[in-house]
Each structure stands twice: as structure tokens, then as C-alpha cells.
Amino acid sequence: MDFRLLEYFLAVCEELHFTKAAVQLGISQPTLSQQIRLLEERVGMPLFQRIGKRNYLTEAGQTLKEHALNIFHELEQAQSEINELKGMQRGRLTIGCSGNHLLTRTLISFHQKQPGISISVVELATEETRAGLLANKLDLGVVFLPLEDEQLVSKELYTEELCLAVAKQHHLAATEVVKLDQLTEVPLILFPEKFLVRQMVDSYSAQAGVQLQPAFELSTMDSMLQMVRLGVGATILPRSYLVQGSDPSIRTVPIVEPVPQKKVGIVYRKQTFLSTAMLAFINELIRTFTPSGTESV
């Protein structure tokens, strides 16, 4: 089967729109449609069906998509191994992360040691990172664990704890610790439900026998802290982020009984070839987060 046809097919899978996919590929829409018809003739079944104004993958299309992604993944792995044999000193890593602040120290130290490797970090929810790894759009993820998937390998880095963040003039700012049941009457600014931090808040609240209803749902930690600075309400965020910011206008208060906490770790595909660059970055992460800094992959 022509790899070009599979490339065209995956572009349509991503867009589910022939005109947009054609623009992405730099070809005309009639040409793309003709190539997809040719691919359908070769596999002997329709790959897309149109319902109303939208295109959907058929069962055969879904099957081909899964195998096509694996084919291109294997080609990329082969190229990575060949590059290693050639002693390539340059490269690129794409990383999905549950919070960019988690990687700041590692990025700085890694760049000092490997200046020829460029790194793109995308802040994503944990499930979005999982999807990106399985679709071969990411090389590595730094996420909350566990992330259950038989196609992924995970390695723990450290335990993250959630804390309350309030403005220094807030009535809870002077307290040493706070319980979740004390927050039922406090206007809260939380992540939307798709984010694991929010799911942690909801889970631990249920354990404490309370239900916390946010006054606002925002998708970035910076925007949440800005609302806190303005005195709009309080938020619950990872301690690592709050400590790193060390904003004098914000007070960080530990949450107890129970303490909301979860493991943070590295994830990558089982079948991924671990290049020198990727291994070096993983080991730099381990050195950053483990007390001894001696453990490595």
C-alpha cells in the first residue's frame, strides 16, 4: 500500500473535513477525494461516511487508522535508531505536561548539557497527554499517576500535594492548616472537570463528606492565581506550583484530613525507541525530582 495514501487518509482522519485536510496537505480537494476513493478501492470497503454535513470514520476506517498510526510510528522509530547509529547530535523532543512549572529546572539543566536538542512542551490534561502519546504526537509525558494503559510505560518521580491558595487579606490566610469542609462557603476557583487536579479535589471532598461547588472554572493556573490576587476567591493547586511562584500577595495553606495527594511520573509508549536525547532527558528529570538523584533509566 502506498504510504502517501495512508498519509492522506490520516490527514482526513484528523480533520474529518476533506477541504481542511487538503489545505493541510497542500493539494486540491478533488485530488484528495480521488486518492481516498483509490484507497477505499484497495481495501475493499468505505473508510468514511457522511451524515448530514459531517464526515465520520467507518469501522473499517477506524481499524485502518489504528494500524496506519502504528506504521508511521515504526518508521519514525527506525529513523531514530538510524540517527543514533550516525551519532546525530541534534534532535527534538515533544513533551506533554500536567503543568509547565514541573519542567522548568529540568529544561534549564538539560539545555546546558544538550544545547543541540530542541524541546517543545505542551501543557495538557493527563488524558490529553495519553492520547498524544498513543497518536505519536508526543515523545514523553509528565503526568499524574496512575495512567492505566497497556501501551504505556510509567515511572514515578515524586508525590504531589494540593494546597489552598488565598490572598494575604483572606480570612483563611492566617490559619496553619485547613480542612476541606471549611471551604464549602468559600468562593472557589477550580479547574474544569476534565483536569486531574479537579478530579482529585472532587474525590477527596467526597471522602471528607463534602461537595465543593466552584464559583469559577478556569483552565490555567496563572489565571486562577490572578483571580485570587484580586480577592475573588480561593483556589486549590499543586504545592510545587505555589512554592515555585512564591508570590508575597498569596498565602499557601496546607489541606488536611485528608491531604489531597497523588504521584507524578513519566510516561511513554512501550514500543518507543529511547534515543540518547530522550534517555538523557528522562534521567535529568529523575535527578531533578529524586532526593538521591542517582537512579536512572
TrEMBL record:
Pfam families per the UniProt record, alphabetical: HTH_1, LysR_substrate
CDD domains in the record: PBP2_LTTR_substrate
GO molecular function: DNA binding
Signal peptide: none
Domain HTH lysR-type: 1-58
Coiled-coil boundaries: none
UniProt keyword annotation of Membrane present: no
Keyword DNA damage: no
Database matches in PROSITE patterns: HTH_LYSR
Keyword entries, A-Z: DNA-binding, Transcription, Transcription regulation
UniProt record similarity statement: Belongs to the LysR transcriptional regulatory family.
Protein name: DNA-binding transcriptional LysR family regulator
Source species of the chain: Paenibacillus favisporus
